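Assess this today:

___
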Amino acid sequence: MERTTIMFYKHQFTIEIDHETAQRFRDRCAQAHVGIAHALRCLLRPDSADGLYRGAHYDFSGIPRLPREDLANGGRPDSLSVGLTPAMYDVFTRYALGENTSRSELARKLVKASLTDPNFDLKVAEKTRTLELDCRESLAGIGAASHEENCARCGRKSR
């Protein structure tokens, strides 16, 4: 009998995106027979640890917050949500900082790029446990600080 592991998704991340793109992404996930959240977990990480920010602490102060052109031009808003483990969240955050962009902008870019990616089915075929282990290995490989040191919510001590 195979032992099952329950993943605890401590961080919820919501991507605000235009409705047409969100619907095309949902359709693409349905064609690949994967859940939307699982597909997002697969996409919100770089192909290698080389793309990760290596600083000790997160600092988004120098990252520009660009206006949302799709909604400013009359697009209908929509959203996609994903739960992330602490390791997945750290990799996603370090990926965004490594790209010098906000998490939201990076997520929108990756979702839009996935719509035309011929390897989409392969990218989203990874098992969740494998994603978690890959994220942990990437963080260990760059000598990243513990999640609690960088996460305001998780680093808070209970009183």
Remarks:
- The radius of gyration is 16 Å.
- The longest helix spans residues 19-32.
